[in-house]
């Protein structure tokens, strides 16, 4: 065997080393949970089930970190506001902080009230239902992450609880009204997120980048936009991120947010003015003004996510722990510190080991993002939750964030096609002039403000002329109109993953419940 063949073999085997290393770290974490739980419980009845549940809870937490956290930091990474390593560090710290500081002392054992726990009178059956739900949700998240599809972890565990619950107690155990609301969120969340993100991006474009002097416009508008962001995130955190340690009504939360946003505006305005002096009037320069707000947005979204969604990993685990120690079925369970640590550390570890794949999907594989577009998505993430919570609408943070990315991408497609139509009109009305004069007019049109562009087009309409574009030229222009800035394959893949999340995790949970029951019954 010559040296070239040996080199090829070494390259082939080294390709899988990082994957094996990540897998090894994940296994060490799960084994560490098993050893810790064993050291705490000793020989109590059902101890083996609690050890198994702890390991499954750790596996679930890793998968939440790998899949769901990408929604918070993906746009910031895709826009180059944060490096991948920086995003992982910030998200890991704030996810864990959110879980430990604001995760609460008590968690609902039946997520979203989708099944009736009173229909399960036997504690062992309840434990098997929770274990099957937790394992099925984790496996589905693992599959979705491997496929590069961001899915809702809440929907994954909801599907698991529903499937295992029906397997244990029949169809009557399910709360179908709740399930219909969850199904509605498949449409409500991405549509709301997309519309709000697109609206903010259009506002930024019309007030800043479509102006003749972008820097002067930015000095005026960026502090206002950051003030709006401060209000949205303060209100969002008060309503959702801190609700388990400090419950507030909307008006109180909004008032606190207004006070904080006013303070932020007073601090930011002179800083933006100072920064703007060193910038030229270009889109690239304006983008730089949104970098720091995006970093704060990623951190705050991660904190709120850790406070809320850690329950997806530890809710069933806390329920199993409570059922084993107290021998009963409960709708609310206390959260021991070790259970909370499993959720917090597992999410951080999952993000570090497997998060980059989904971060890239959200940040760069759906549509191209810059800081202004990422800012619009971050605003959508906070404001959509505030609006939905006040209207009583069910929403998913994953679907909101991904919907925001698609909304920004489709707005870009629309604006590009609209601009191409305007250029076509200009060329049609200048068909008798030479190419140099046409190009000069196009340069003036490109530099003009929105109002000036409108006036120029109105003048053209008043002097309408016949088009002498060739058939080949027309065909080329139509291709420009149809240029796609959103990857359709990503849209179809993600939409399909969203639709099948609940049924897929439900079917797996039912199979796992019957398997567990068969193994445990004498």
Explain what this protein looks like in three dimensions:
There is one protein chain. The model is unreliable at 465-469 (pLDDT under 50). The protein is mostly helical and 522 residues long. It has one domain. A two-stranded antiparallel ribbon has the order 1-2. The protein is built from 19 helices and two strands. The radius of gyration is 27 Å and the shape is elongated.
The helix count comes to 19
> How many domain units?
1
- Helix fraction, binned, reads over 70%
Low-confidence stretches: 465-469
| H/E topology pattern | HHHHHEHHHHHHHEHHHHHHH
Strand content: under 5%
Question: Strand count, sense and closure of the main sheet?
Answer: 2 strands, antiparallel
The tally of strands reads 2
CA radius of gyration is 27 Å
**Whole-Å distance between the termini?**
58 Å
Q: What is the overall shape?
A: elongated
Overall structural class, as computed from helix and strand content, comes to mainly alpha
Rounded average pLDDT? 82
Give structural attributes:
single chain, 522 residues, mainly alpha, two-stranded antiparallel sheet, 19 helices, elongated
What is the topology?
Blueprint: H1 3-14, H2 17-41, H3 47-67, H4 70-78, H5 84-102, E1 106-108, H6 123-147, H7 153-169, H8 176-209, H9 214-241, H10 250-276, H11 283-288, H12 291-326, E2 332-334, H13 337-365, H14 371-391, H15 397-429, H16 435-447, H17 450-462, H18 471-481, H19 488-520
Antiparallel strand pairs: 1-2
Helix pairs in contact: 2-3, 2-13, 3-6, 3-12, 3-13, 4-5, 4-13, 4-14, 5-12, 5-13, 6-7, 6-12, 6-19, 7-19, 8-9, 8-14, 8-15, 9-10, 9-12, 9-14, 12-13, 12-14, 14-15
């Amino acid at each position: 065997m010559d040296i070239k063949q040996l080199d090829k073999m070494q390259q082939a085997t080294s390709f899988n080393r990082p994957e094996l290393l990540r897998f090894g770290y994940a296994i060490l974490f799960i084994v560490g949970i098993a050893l810790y739980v064993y050291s705490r419980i000793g020989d109590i009845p059902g101890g083996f089930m609690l050890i198994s549940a702890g390991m499954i809870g750790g596996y679930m937490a890793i998968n939440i970190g790998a899949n769901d956290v990408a929604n918070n930091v993906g746009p910031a990474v895709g826009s180059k506001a944060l490096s991948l390593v920086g995003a992982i560090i910030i998200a890991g710290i704030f996810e864990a902080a959110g879980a430990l500081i604001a995760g609460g002392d008590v968690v609902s054992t039946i997520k979203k009230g989708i099944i009736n726990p009173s229909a399960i009178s036997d504690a062992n059956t309840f434990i098997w239902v929770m274990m099957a739900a937790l394992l099925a949700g984790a496996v589905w998240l693992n599959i979705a992450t491997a496929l590069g599809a961001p899915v809702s972890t809440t929907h994954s565990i909801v599907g698991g609880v529903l499937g295992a619950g029906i397997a244990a107690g029949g169809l009557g155990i399910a709360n179908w009204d709740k399930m219909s609301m969850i199904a509605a969120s498949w449409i409500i969340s991405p549509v709301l997120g997309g519309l709000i993100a697109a609206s903010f991006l259009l506002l930024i474009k019309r007030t800043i980048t479509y102006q003749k002097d972008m820097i002067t416009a930015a000095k005026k508008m960026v502090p206002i936009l950051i003030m709006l962001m401060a209000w949205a995130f303060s209100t969002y955190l008060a309503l959702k991120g801190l609700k388990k340690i400090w419950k507030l009504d909307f008006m109180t939360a909004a008032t606190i947010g207004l006070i904080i946003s006013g303070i932020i505006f007073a601090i930011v305005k002179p800083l933006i003015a100072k920064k703007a002096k060193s910038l030229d009037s270009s889109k690239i320069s304006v983008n730089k003004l949104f970098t720091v707000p995006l970093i704060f947005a990623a951190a705050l979204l991660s904190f709120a996510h850790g406070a809320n969604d850690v329950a997806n990993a530890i809710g069933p685990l806390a329920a199993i722990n409570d059922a084993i120690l107290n021998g009963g079925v409960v709708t609310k369970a206390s959260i021991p510190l070790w259970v909370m640590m499993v959720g917090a550390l597992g999410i951080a570890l999952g993000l570090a080991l497997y998060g980059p794949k989904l971060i890239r999907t959200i940040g760069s594989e759906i549509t191209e993002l810059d800081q202004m577009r990422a800012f619009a998505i971050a605003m959508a993430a906070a404001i959509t939750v505030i609006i939905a919570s006040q209207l009583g609408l069910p929403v998913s943070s994953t679907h909101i964030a991904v919907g925001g990315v698609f909304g920004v991408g489709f707005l870009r497609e629309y604006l590009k096609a609209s601009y191409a139509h305007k250029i076509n009109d200009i060329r049609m009305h200048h068909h008798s002039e030479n190419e140099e004069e046409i190009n000069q007019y196009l340069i003036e049109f490109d530099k003009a403000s929105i109002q000036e562009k409108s006036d120029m087009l109105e003048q053209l309409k008043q002097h309408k002329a016949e088009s002498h574009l060739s058939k080949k030229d027309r065909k080329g222009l139509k291709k420009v109109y149809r240029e796609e800035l959103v990857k359709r394959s990503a849209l179809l893949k993600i939409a399909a993953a969203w639709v099948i999340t609940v049924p897929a995790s439900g079917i797996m949970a039912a199979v796992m419940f019957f398997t567990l029951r068969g193994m445990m019954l004498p």
